[in-house]
Every structure is written in structure tokens, then in C-alpha cells.
Amino acid sequence: MRNIIYSILLVVACAAVVVTGSRFIKSTPASVDASTQAVSSPAVWFYEKPEETARFGKSDWLDSTAALSIATLSETPADILIVPFQTDKLAFDATTRSLLTLTTANAIVSRTNLSVADPLLVANALGAGRSAFTRQEIEALATKIGAKRILLANISHGNGRTYTLRAALFKKIAEDARKDNPESYSTQFVLADSLSRADISFSDENLPYNTYQSYRDELIEQLLDVKLTAITSAREAWSQLLLEDTVDAFIQPEDTNLLSAARRLQLMAALHPITITERYGRQLYERSLVLLESIDESSPNHTLMQARA
Q1: How confident is the model at residue 130 (pLDDT cuts 50, 70, 90)?
Q2: What is the average pLDDT across 142-150?
């Protein structure tokens, strides 16, 4: 009898959490509470308390930027809305979280047939500088841009040199299903799958952005059920021209390789004034780093540009 009980407990445990052949712990739909659509673990995907999501102070400029970003996103429907990486406990800075979001979006767009809402516009639409968001505002934005899936991720660390990465995919409920059984669906999106990985190491030389890239593809393929195409990085030539003769030549250069594009982004970032809008300058550096991911590391000044960013 004792062996039978142990066998039943083992089956139940395996139905709740599956350790896949990957490096992630994967939660199956069996571990999702039907009434709350929440993973039956301490994981938190949405932040409902105002003090957890509020910006510091009121800004008409940020509000108008958010409205403009939403309007722009609405003009180009996307398959997937990637919420800016959220954080709790001891947090990584906004630049780190933004980089992780950008590299995830770039991998999906460049290596699948799926479309992704522009992550920088999404960050502005949800509120620049915030580290957590409510379910209502995330679902409202996804609905406005026509996204059928929402990808959320959370990254946090302890006092040491490791961090925990959690990610989840939410899928839009079919309208017919909601109409036929409205009591079962209190929201427009339900949890479809989730992954987690603890104790990912990082250091001053091997930053979270670098270590995350070794897990990124696996995370995308498992959550979205897709196969990413191989990265075809090419060695690119370095243009010795530091500045074009005219602004028009700088904006529409003859040299259009990715290395030159990354160089131009870094130049614009360096020229960006240090003001309240400094984060836009940092975003230019972030975009240059994502471009460098697709360039062979043997290309001239590749390492230099990475270090500069």
C-alpha cells in the first residue's frame, strides 16, 4: 500500500512540474489554478498594488509619450506583446532589463515568422522607468495592438552573484469561449505555460545580458513552441570614415552593413545630452548591442564596440 501511495504522489508531482530535457523547470497546465490562472507556486506574474507599479511623480510629458506610443503600436498589429522584463526583490537596473527585453524581441523577429510589438514603444506605453505592471494595463495594451499572446519575464537576484529567471506565456481567450462561459473567464488572457531557472551566475565581466543569451533561445522555443533559425553572422568590414560630410549622408549612408549601423547608433548615443531624457541615449547603446549579436566577433572593433556600450 505504501508503494502505491508513493507512486500516486510521484505522478501528481510530475503533472505539476516537469523537469524537461532543458535547463528550465517547466510548469504544465496541470499546475495552473483554473479560477485564478495563476501558477500554483510563489511565482507572481502581475503586480496589482498601486505602490508597486506607480511612477515617481506625475509627468504630463511621460503621459503624452505613452499615448503617442500606444497610437503608434496600434497602427501595426503584432502577434506577440513582450512585456518589459519585470523585477522584484533585489532588482537589476532599467538598462539591464531593457537589454534582455530587446534581445528577446530581436531573436523572435529575426529568426521566426512571428511579429513582435516594438519593445521600446511598449516600454513607453506602459510607463517609462517602471519595473512592474498590472494585469489590467498589460491586457489592455495587448488588446489595442491586436496581440494574441503575451510573454512576461521576471528577473531578480539575491545578495550573491546569481539570479533567477522566470518567464510565462499568456494566450488570448477566443471570444466564443468567453461568450459561452463568461463565469470561467474573468480576464482576456490565460496562462498557457511557464518556465523558471534559478542560480544563473553573473559577474562584472560576464554580465546578466551575456549570461541570459545562453538561455534565451531555449526559453523562446519552449514557450512559443517554435524552432529558431540558425544565426548567420557574417564578418563585416569596418568603415574608417568617422563622420559623413552631411547630415543626409549620415541618416541615409551608402555603407549599410550592421557594423556601421551599430557605430552610428553609438555615435548618436554619445552625442545625446545628459538630461531627464538620458534614457533615450542609453537605448541607442542598447540597440547597438543587439545589432552586434548578429555580427561575427572577428569583425573589426566588434569587442571594442561591445565594451563601449
Answers
A1: confident
A2: 93
Round to whole Å and give the CA distance between 110 and 106: 6
pLDDT tens digit sequence for 221-241? 999 999 999 877 666 555 544
Look at residue 230 and give its three-state secondary structure: coil
Query: What share of the chain in percent tops pLDDT 90?
Result: 27
Query: Is 146:78 a contact under the CB 8 Å cutoff?
Result: yes
Residue 16 has pLDDT above 60, yes or no: no
At 153 the three-state DSSP class reads strand
Kind of pairing, strands 149-157 and 80-82?
Answer: parallel
CA dist., res. 291 & res. 263, Å (int): 10
Place of cell 470561467: 184
| C-alpha–C-alpha distance, residues 167 and 122, integer Å | 18
Return the number of other C-beta atoms located less than 10 Å from residue 243's C-beta.
Answer: 9
**From CA 5, how far away is CA 157, in angstroms rounded?**
38
Which phi and psi (to 5°) does residue 71 adopt? Answer: -65, -40
Q: Do residues 239 and 229 lie in contact, with contact meaning Cβ atoms separated by under 8 Å?
A: no
Contacts of 27 (CB under 8 A, 6+ apart): 16, 17, 18, 39, 41, 193, 194, 195, 196
Rounded CA separation 169/219 (Å): 11
